[in-house]
Amino acid sequence: MLSSTLKQQKSKSKIRPPRKSGSNTLDPNESWKLLEVAIHDIQNKNASKWSFEQLYRLAYNLVLSKNAQYLYNHVHDEIVKYLEENVRTQLESLIIKKEEQQMMNTSNLQENDVLPDHAISKSDAAEILNLFNKIWDDHLISVWLISQVVMYMDRTFTKENRLPLVYDVGLISFQKYIVMHNLEASNVTIGAKLIEIFLNYFSLNRNGEMIDKFLIKSTITIFESLVGVDGETYYSRYFEPALLLSSHRYYEQKINELLGHQSGSLYINKAVQIINDEESRFQIYLPNQTAEKLRDLMYKDLVVANIENILNLQNDGLKKWIENNDFEIMEKVYRLVEGVDSNKMILKKCLRSIVIHNGDDLIAQTKLQQAKDFDASDDKKKKATKKSGKEANTQYAVNYIKNFTNCKSKYDQIIEKAFNNDIEIYREVESAFITFLNENNRIQEYLSLYIDDCIKKSLKNKSSDEVERVFNDSILIFKFIKDKDIFEKYYKNHLAKRLLNQKSISTELELQMISKLKTEAGSTFTAKFEGMFKDVKISQDITQQFRNEASKTTLASDLARMNDGRKFDVDFSILTANFWPMPVNKAMEEVTYVPALDIVKATFEKFYNNTYNGRNLTWAPNMCTIDLRMNFPGKTYLVNMPTLAAFIVLTCFNDEETEDGSKSLTFEEIHQITKIPNSDLIRHLQSIAVAPKTRILKKTPISRDINPTDRFSLNLDFKSLQTKFKILAVSLSSASSRMQAGINQISESDKFDATFSSSRLETDEERSFTLTAVQRSREYEVDAAIVRVMKARQSAKYQVLVAEVVRLIGDVGKRFRPQPSLVKRRVEDLVDKEYLRRDENDRELFWYVA
């Protein structure tokens, strides 16, 4: 039942053609006369008097009588005729009229009057575009009605002959005879003139005036509806290129205006404003495909073509914005660059250049800061105690690291607040910091001195958060520096001085820093640091055990009696030679100790050998200090001095014969008594007989140099403003001091002076020695890595061996990245030493020799 009902409904809705007329002969001219009048009335909006059925039957009969071609041609001609005689004339005359009026208005301008920006005024442009839209709408309605009348022809004859439908004929004719027709006495088509008028009208909105958005959208719709023979729309072929060209000129005009001000901030702010306005305009008026093209053009003109020059402006560019922390303008720059390049290459390039240039600025800033600190010391007492040149250089190193961390923090803040925490920009900035930081060939020493300063004094009374921040900044710089083994060398020296002289604020700070270094560089890197701490802890325990044992004997009372009844305390530091930076100096075994110390030395050796059987002790008095109470005629002083200097005073000038200052000894005589090596003896005599503030001995003749024939005696006229002071040993690193001592090269023991508690920046000569020692250590490391690789592989090609050694030391160990030339030299050396052998047939192949 359901299916039969559906069939009935379908049969009822079937459209049947009108019944054929009784006559088989039909005069097409008579039928067309009626249709022609009807079409003319339709085009003139006067079709109400006509019956659609009557008109449809006339067209239908013409098709049936095989006059379809006749009908098709006449309908086409009638549409064209109406467009040419009525529509085009109306539109063309209005355009010409408005242009003539504009020309008359322009000719009437006075000399100082401002010329109008556009060829046709806003109202005239709107009038022309409104007329264009009106005739288009009327044409569409009339063509649609005509197509309904000849519908049967379109369904049969037109389709069979693959001709355009009548409705399409109307669109094609409108484009051909209206839009593509040249204006009277002109080579410009009506369509081109309409595009010009449209663009002028559209530009009014760009200049801030209100325009009819519906008029704009409807005009664009007309251009999109006009399709050429090749299928391309009039919009895409003519209108869109003109719009892009007009927009390009508009952007160039704005760019030239902005560039004339030479202000990066103004350019960026205006560019962002233009882009935002244009984006809104695109969304309201234009199709998506055109909006995308205009957006690309806009960013290309406003950003790609000029942003690099804007960022590089000196007075108001990226560098200035960074200095002023102008996060708002930098965020706008980031958004602009992001719109044209997802990788932000332009911004990264400029940032990298600025960061690397900051390296030079950082040096100048640190020097200026140091000069200001120096000039701020106006008080005479402060000027009298101003830092020496070496101390000033050390402070410069500390300030350099502080300024670097401040600079890095500044860029981190910029990346967070202005660049949306962009990881690519962060990596580029970090890479730039690494580049300029490693251009400073002393950065490893600077960092070690900075940490030394923090642990000794700067972090005193600081909160845990502040300590954590300082250490994290230090680890960040440590991560940036390339040759970490050089840093290790300096850090070990500075740590040794802090531990031996007990200069650290707290042991917890030392261990915290070492823990962070261990996390970053591995346990191998910090093994010796941890060993040094272990030695200090064990030394404290052993010293306490020794004192407990000594308290059971008469040692303390015997020492007090030898020390004029005063308590005699000794602290021992038992150091593992491999952990500490100073080597064992066998020459110190011959030094003559003062009687009290000689007794303590022998007693401790006996105690230590009984406690730790099989261990050997080598005494190092050159690494120790002694506190002496010195009684001069006018005053008693408490003096801390190196042990060897104290030996000179106590063994040579501490008897009844020297109390009146008459006893004098030559350099050779002092050497015979103390057995102190010449190099050390010269240093310590210079510190107690030449240095003006600590001249407790007189030297004859008075000179800076120490000669074998010079005589020394107790300086009874010695005076000092301080009751308690310290005497420092003169460094033997300078060429003049070594020449005095008859030494050509600095030894490790000469270079490292544990009695000098404060760390300072090395001289060029000292640094040269340090780098030589580091290079020697690198050779050992490369040798060990080569043997490790070859032992595992048994054989390897040269290039494979080099790559694996570089990976082991540079990537795994992270201490330094060995140069292939160094690896090559070490391979050849190991071949000579018969650890490796070269294959007889393949010179690039090496074998491990067990």
Automatic annotation (TrEMBL):
The keyword Mitochondrion does not apply. GO terms for biological process: ubiquitin-dependent protein catabolic process. Residues 9-19 have a biased composition (Basic residues). The keyword Zinc does not apply. Keywords: Isopeptide bond, Ubl conjugation. GO terms for molecular function: ubiquitin protein ligase binding. Residues 1-27 are annotated as: Disordered. Gene3D superfamilies: Cullin Repeats, Cullin, Chain C, Domain 2, Winged helix-like DNA-binding domain superfamily/Winged helix DNA-binding domain. This is Cullin family profile domain-containing protein. It comes from Pichia membranifaciens.
